[in-house]
Every structure is written in structure tokens, then in C-alpha cells.
Design a protein that fits this description.
- With about 130 residues, the protein is an alpha+beta fold.
- The chain has one domain: OB fold (Dihydrolipoamide Acetyltransferase, E2P).
- It is about 35% helix and about 35% strand.
- It has a five-stranded mixed β-barrel with strand order 1-2-3-5-4.
Length: about 130
């Protein structure tokens, strides 16, 4: 009986795997973009309007403690980061550019009023 339950569970898990992969694969599809913007501390920017070189030390400390960083695009929109893989934090990719201009290539999805970007490449903007 136990052997049958284990085999049935394994078969069910194996059959569900493609469905789970398909669902996750569609999560980060979007429009490929190349854009410039400023890396911001999302919390301080949205609640107190703080940004720029004078806010760099605070933004760095907040990011290192887990507060999310985002990109304020030259189009005036805020882009939050998504990861192409589950449970892969993205702050470390933006940390070297806190409160600086960057050039980003990636994929953007607008969902429920939020602009979400999955970054492929990021460099300092010149």
C-alpha cells in the first residue's frame, strides 16, 4: 500500500511539473526595452521624496538592510525589479549604482499599475 502511494505521488508530481514550469515561464515575459534612469531607494523616494547624491548613504544603508531599490526612468515611471528565478534578490545588482544614473536593458511588464523590469544588463549611464 505504501509503495502504491509513493509511486502515485511521484507520477502526479512528474505530470504537474510541466504545468508549474509553464506558469512560471509566463510570469516574466514582457516587452524588451533599453532605458535610462536613476536607481532610487523606493521607500524614501515614495514617502518623503528623497533622492540624489545627498541621499546616497541613507539609500545604501536601507538597501543593505533589505529595503527595495528601484529605477526612476527618464520617462518618470518607477520600475521595480523582478527576478527571472524565484527567490533571487535583485538589490545586489543595483547597489553599486545607488542614486546614480544607469542604462538598463531588460524586459518590462506593467501589471496592476506597477511597472516591473527583469534586468538583463545594467551599466552606469554616461
Amino acid at each position: 500500500m505504501l509503495k502504491r502511494i509513493i509511486i502515485s505521488s511521484a507520477v502526479l508530481a512528474f505530470c504537474c511539473l510541466p504545468l508549474a514550469a509553464q506558469e512560471m515561464g509566463g510570469m516574466h515575459t514582457g516587452k524588451d526595452v533599453s532605458m535610462t534612469g536613476q536607481v532610487i531607494d523606493l521607500s524614501c523616494f515614495t514617502t518623503a521624496g528623497l533622492s540624489g547624491p545627498s541621499h546616497k548613504a541613507c539609500a545604501t544603508a536601507c538597501a543593505q538592510s533589505g529595503m527595495p531599490l528601484a529605477i526612476l526612468g527618464d520617462d518618470g515611471k518607477i520600475y521595480v525589479l523582478a527576478s527571472p528565478k524565484p527567490a533571487e534578490p535583485q538589490n545586489s545588482r543595483l547597489l553599486p549604482f545607488v542614486e546614480q544614473k544607469v542604462k538598463v536593458a531588460g524586459s518590462v511588464v506593467e501589471s496592476h499599475g506597477v511597472n516591473v523590469i527583469t534586468i538583463k544588463t545594467i551599466t552606469a549611464a554616461t
